[in-house]
Amino acid sequence: KNNVKAMEKELVTCSLQGREKAVLERHQIFQIPGGKALETKVIVVLGKAGMGKSILVQKICQDWSNGAFPQFEFVFWFDCKQLSLPGKRYSLKDLLLEFFVKPQEGSKEIFEYILQNPAKVLLVFDGFEGLHDHEHFPRCSASQPEEDPCSIKELLSGLIQKKILSGCTLLLTTRPKERVYQYLSKVDKIIEIVGFSPQQRELYITKYFEGLPYCGDSLKLIKECEYLFSHCYCPAICRFVCFLCETVLEMGDKSLPSTLTAVFLKFVQHKVIAMQTAVTAVQNQESLAMLAHIAWYLGEKHQSAMNSDFPSKEVKEFALKYGFFLPFAFPRHLDSGEEEFGSTFSDFVIQNFLSALHLMLAEEIKDKSLTKYLSFPSKKKKPYNWLDLVPRFLAGLLFLQDDPSFCSLSNKDGKQSAKKQKALLKYIRRLKINELCPERLLQLLHCIYETQSNYLLEHVALKLKSDLSFLGVVLTPPDVHVLCSILKMSRKEFFLDLRSSIIDMQGLKDLVGLKNVASFRASLGDTVRLWKSLEQKKDYQLLRAATEKFLLDPFKARTMKDIGDLKELVEMQKMIKCVQDASGCSSYEIPAIRNLRKVEFALGPVCGLQGFLKLVEILPAFPSLQHLDLDALSENDIGDEGAKSLSEVFPTLTSLETLNLSQNKITDVGAEKLATALPSLSSLKTLSLYNNSICDSGAENLAKVLPEMASLRVLDVQYNKITGAGAQQLTDSLQKCPHIKNLVMWNPTIPYGVLEHLQQLDSRISL
To answer: What does each C-alpha distance from 757 to 277, 658, 749 come to in angstroms?
Structure first.
């Protein structure tokens, strides 16, 4: 139970099932169906850095102050990176009524009221990843944590495990890759923020420039640089791009940098160099180098905040003056009222960029050791996920060392940087690109794209394997842009597996539209939505390409949504009345429908029958269906009603060869309905009715039709309720069926001696 790897596997399983994009209103965040009133509710908001988790929390607090969320009388909001400064210890009372807010009077009475009414309390811990070493949380050792001081990790552990202030509501925000695995069983709801849609990006940019003289030019300028516009899905980066665009337009330029590295190089240059004198230039370069060292030092420890321990007064003034750091205050001693001041990086991207700048400039980091920071190991070694943009910025800076913007930030000799660039080239040439896992491959593609080196871009395009799987890997708009750019440079044909990648429609359209993407798999719902969009726009050429490339076989239905998506696919076939091609045909059959050969049904007992009845309605639409498998492990429990419904469409399933109805609570009633229609399955070779509730009457009905099922080779009726009489009838029928190779009919209700005797009569009977 304490195995971290097992917890990681559990999280992956939970997070990928049924994960779909949806609009969630703020008032729905605290709604937990089936939640018990007196239990602590734990809600986790996931989102990459810069996605707006903190803004969401602030908005929740603002809404509450304006009368929303009336179920809460108290809302406490904490920034985890400030809480986790070394040496700080808190009791619950200290945390709520000293650290967060100190009432002028009545603290004791307020705290007693909170303890007696925990359901009226909302505790928000923003930036869970900001807690040092948060994957190893100790149990709370204090005998009375409400009153006795303990570490913030112990206090949080007690809250999450519902041992302290039981009945309150906890809202945690963190990054998706951070280790919250050990608390997965305690979490009641997980929400993930996925960023701006293309329309929201345009709206944000338009509002940013609203009222400015170049409002009309700004959106056009940013959209022309597709790579930067794709990065604008992240609100924090969108703000940086807008700032740079504003600067560019003010200076009269008409173009933006082509990479993210160049954007932040320009941003830092504008901050530091603008209006400086020759006297301060060298001092600023030295301060920037020291700040870059601090960024890396903190980042290695998964930190972005520090006490006021800057190397010098000049570096501190530099960091605060140019907005690289923001100050904050916290109590020095919780009972004294004295305040202490700390500082935190103003933005995660700035810390990543400065960390990469440190790796580039630091003389102690030699060229041979540089590559370990690029995070491309083929095996799953622990990467620098916390500073996940550092490899991209580092690769980009190594190829921008001659850029005037870079030269203005550093007075270092360029020889060492040139050596580091050569080390990067040598490393990538030796890299076994086709062995990289999908996450590492995407990181590599981003790094190569940031270099804008034609040699490296062509090298990677040449080395890519033709079968690329991104199954379960979230593909962001920048991921899609980089992938498209490099695939275009290759002469190979590719198969892409995009299932469970949460790719947006524009990204799916871009990848599917590539001429050298020969086939792909993706979420059926997303694919059908893309087709509908293309048909509405009358883009029949791309619609035809998108339908011909799409692979559906085999299809596994795990949720009601999967069944709904399959039904939409069938309806889409009816909707496409005409897709013109060169020969002018007037009708078109979707290949995914024509070529579907295997359907696995695994909805489980709750929705099994309901989902199966809907599936049966559309089964006749698949002319090549050979294998229908109602996964026995899922216990779909379709019962006699499901069996009856299925038997009614048997005459249309002319290609069906394997039918698995194991463990579905089918009785003699269902067996009779099936037996009546089974002879119409002219291609059926294997029929499994394993572990149902079929008795002798059902066995008799099956025995009657066996001679009529000329294609049948294997019948499995073991673990039912058939007795010796039913077994004898099946054996007698088997004598008339030379085409059947195996009859599996061990049942606990058949005496072993009887079964052994029957096997002696016919060796095709399996014990």
So the answer is: 104, 29, 15
> What are phi and psi for residue 136, nearest 5 degrees?
-120, 85
Q: What are the structure tokens assigned to 484, written together? A: 């498209």
List CB contacts of 594: < 8 A, sequence separation 6 or more. Answer: 623, 624
Sheet with 686-688: strands ordered across: 555-557, 598-601, 627-630, 658-660, 686-688, 714-716, 742-744, 765-766
Question: Distance between CA 158 and CA 433 in Å, rounded?
Answer: 45
DSSP-based three-state secondary structure for 400: coil
Phi-psi region of 665 (alpha: psi -120 to 50; beta: other; left: phi over 0): left
DSSP result, 70-97: TT-SEEEEEEHHHHT-TT-EE-HHHIII
DSSP state of 139: P
Tell me whether strands 686-688 and 658-660 are parallel, antiparallel or unpaired: parallel
Consecutive 10-residue averages of pLDDT for the chain (767 residues): 36 41 80 76 89 92 93 91 72 82 82 92 86 54 64 83 88 74 69 88 94 87 94 93 89 86 86 63 82 87 75 83 78 57 82 90 79 62 65 91 74 73 88 89 94 93 94 92 95 94 91 95 93 90 93 93 93 70 59 95 91 96 95 83 96 96 95 95 95 95 95 95 94 94 93 91 89
Please state the φ and ψ torsions of residue 78, each to the nearest 5 degrees.
-125, 140
Alpha-carbon span 710 to 682, nearest angstrom: 8
Token code pair at residue 70: 């009336």
123 beta partners: 76, 170
Write the secondary structure of 512-550 as one string of H (helix), E (strand) and C (coil).
HCCCCEEEEECCHHHHHHHHHHHHHCCCHHHHHHHHHHE
Beta bridge partners of 190: 44
SS3 377: coil
Residue keyed to tokens 């490339």: 549
CA-wise closest residue to 504 among 475, 546, 481: 475
**Dihedral over Cα of 724, 728, 729, 734: its sign:** positive
pTM comes to 0.85
What six digits make up the tokens of 357?
A: 């700048």
